Prior knowledge:
By secondary structure, this protein is α/β, with parallel strands linked by helices. It has helices at residues 26-42, 55-59, 71-80, 93-96, 100-109, 131-141, 165-173, 177-184, 201-204; strands at 14-18, 45-51, 85-89, 112-118, 122-123, 129-130, 144-148, 152-154, 160-162, 193-195, 210-212, 223-230, 233-240. A hairpin with a 2-residue loop joins strand 12 (223-230) and strand 13. The strands form five sheets. A five-stranded parallel β-sheet has the order 3-2-1-4-7, with helices on both faces.
Amino acid sequence: MESVWSFPAPSRPLVASVGNFDGLHLGHAAILEQVVRQAHALDALPTVVTFEPHSLAALRPAQAPPRLTPEPIKRSLLKACGIDEIVTLTPDEATLSLTADAFYERLRDAGVRHFVEGSRFVFGRGRSGNIQTLAEWCRRDGLGLTVIDDVDVTLADGATVAVSSTLVRWLLLQGRVRDAARCLGRPYRLTGDVVRGDARGRAIGFPTANLDCSQQLVPAEGVYGARVTLDSRVHPVALSI
């Protein structure tokens, strides 16, 4: 089985980062900033290579993390960070079975001339490739590599922690939405379709709307101060989960 990887025309080199980029938190932002900077320096195309859905959804569905950022929002956030090209890989058997060197060679042959990755980056079947492996191969082939260290934030309880998608999920499930926002660099966003509810709003004198957010992680039960965008207008709301 051959997996189809759709990369831009090779007339222009690529500066690329590979990852799921779920949540687009401050750690991701640091990586993307360097992708754009290196691309401008090399007259290259700033590129992200990502997976849809999360690779664990294909490997071990029961262990796949609830997603923070639905795919359309992830794309819009990547574009807002200055990424011109988004290459979306399907985590099918052909792609997931690629060894680390085969995965790297696919990217190299597609025109990637500079990689930007976090220090804990792993890739290839069985996560057999790591940042040291990538550095060795880039040196051998004359490609560039920029390694980005973890981005730390200080939470409301005074703890200083490295930002990660896993941490953001944990904070949201604890109801710590302010701390999650510190890690994301913006408030957490829920998106979904308005669905019919029990019409309880008619009895309390305030308009209400029930949102189906089944495609992403929903924070812990509680009542939160929030903002809603409706018909391009922003309104303050009480959000009950």
